[in-house]
Fold this sequence. Notes:
The protein has helices at residues 3-20, 28-37, 39-70, 77-95, 103-133, 142-163, 191-194, 205-227, 229-239, 241-246, 251-277, 284-299, 304-324, 330-344; strands at residues 180-181, 279-280. By secondary structure, it is mainly alpha-helical.
Amino acid sequence: MKQWQKMLWYLAVAYLVLLLGPIAGLDIPRIMGEIFRTPESLIQQLLVGIINGAIIAIIALGYTLVYGIIELINFAHGDLYMLGAFTSLTVVGAFGVESGASWQDSILPIFVSLLLATIVCAGLNILTERYAYRPLRNAPRLAPLISAIGVSFIFQNTGLFWGGLRSFIPIMGNNAASPKSFPDLLPRIDILKAIGIQSNIAFTTKDLIVLVVAVVLMVGLHLFVQYTRPGKAMRAVAQNRDAARIMGINVNQIITLTFLLGGALAGAAGLLVGLYNNTVVFTMGFTAGLRAFTAAVLGGIGNIIGAMLGGVLIGVLSALSDQYLSSRWTNAWVFAVLVVILVFRPGGLLGENVQEKV
């Protein structure tokens, strides 16, 4: 893009922001006044945004892994994460633990929930790849995309059916479509007050546990892809599938491994969201999936670090919009930022702008 074209884009964006911004809550003098009056609110929203963004990033990794290997946008991934949350809720209900249970009584149900949620979601993702995507791997790109949307509807209706199994799973409640209450099992000790800092900023052990687990999962995936033999094989297949096959790499096996990892991360994210927000519903996969896909595109689809960065940015932008702009306009502001970034960085923040040869 030439310099004068960039300047025109800058002017057009500035004009639209000044024209439409106040309608969507962008009152700069008011916002600056609130920040100077209560800076602790800004810090609080940044913390909330980082924690929610870390969870979004885990889901976004599933999108970026699959796209990086086979260039498929797996629209079923968000609803797979929802099934991970339902699996976790079912396991917790089977243990009979309730909100306020001691940490000693909660640790085993949480661990078993994490284990089973990752296994169930990884298994479903592998089956989806084997029977819904692999037969269409050499078909026109629209075919696997439609297949992914179909699998998404299957998963979503599975969640709706699952939520109506009160006779077998009492914790699901009376209404299949209503939100389910996830027991509050994580301790809520205010860390700042515990170390003697008196502040209105709330940062509890619950926030810390969710954030640490999310970061460990992201760092673990990055190290796996960068430094293990299967990880190097994944990068080889992503770079050139045919060349990797010639070098003796089992491409189908690597693609299956990729779906396994993405599904396991979705299951873990489902548990984390249940523990953090204490609510799960069969429609939660759509919104989370949309934001996670946005995060993957924002960071650079196919780029693992980019997906992490994009997730945190989406989380922070959403939290700040809810606090200082208007929660009704949060999605609009998030996508407006995405559009502006893609105008100047079509490949995303950390992605490469690659032109396809005709």
